[in-house]
DNA sequence: AGTATATGTTTCCAAAACCTATACTT
């Protein structure tokens, strides 16, 4: 489960479930755990946790003599913490801290795949950037000050997994974040972020006369990509905080229901240059690996009439059919429609869409609906659509 | 039974390697 939100929730879980407990003894390590033995023993100590991006720091604080010990965990693909009866620990518990209760319980680091690990000491891994959840301002500045880094030569969907800049973002979050703005995942990262920087300056100029409350509302209603890197994971934390125990049966359901794009029927998916699956809707963007076509949406195809076969649609006819489409479907991006049609029709499609959007028949959906206002100009101009 | 997939990172500069569990196909 582990991306930034799961680490943040694990930290909260430890502090809430273990904050009032006294632990005793040493840390029991399994034979195959991916981390060092922990040189710590204490008759009575407390545990406290803090998360930063995809790392979690655990502090062992002796109540009597002895010096504290810190550990920094990464969860890999399957890591997490659970407080269980010491007599019946979960499978794949690789590090255990026993309480002084009778019968004792154990806080267990559980990790079936063992891609997770821990290190001794309280230092965060060098080279990981500020946390998207807990250090938003520093995170934002770190990205915008370093746009000349070659990390931003890559497609935005791949840059978003770079923990030097996006500490806490993982595969499901990148899909959900890009989906909110309908940014093509294989648009170049620098292009997207330079546009954002410019937009930020223009907005600041334009809004400087507004009262602070209006400014705040504008910001809330039109979040940019970097803001979404904070607010989208915050949504996950909020959605799951009443289900803090990672074993809770409803947890998975709540999370699945929250997802709008990742693994959702009807969305497209592709492998990125690292072989990871990126889920998205609409255009893949120019840096798509091998220039492959996106997989067709997995849901039922919308009825297109004769739209896809004929070459000589008049603009008016296409416009009418698009109106029907836009009315029949849930908020639709231009790219969604385009991916059902041969590329030879894309230019006409764009013309027709412009016509539909600028007409009153646009049905009130012209505002923000097929294309997100923060991205549309580039999306349309940059891809010959 | 075998295959493909998975919320991550490292080692090296792309693709394999590290692992287990689960769902789905012969």
UniProtKB/TrEMBL annotation:
Residue span(s) of domain Formamidopyrimidine-DNA glycosylase catalytic: 2-116
GO term, biological process aspect, one: base-excision repair
GO cellular component: nucleus
A GO term, aspect molecular function: DNA N-glycosylase activity
Entry superkingdom: Eukaryota
Pfam families xrefs: Fapy_DNA_glyco, Neil1-DNA_bind
Name this protein carries in UniProt: Nei like DNA glycosylase 1
Species name: Anas zonorhyncha
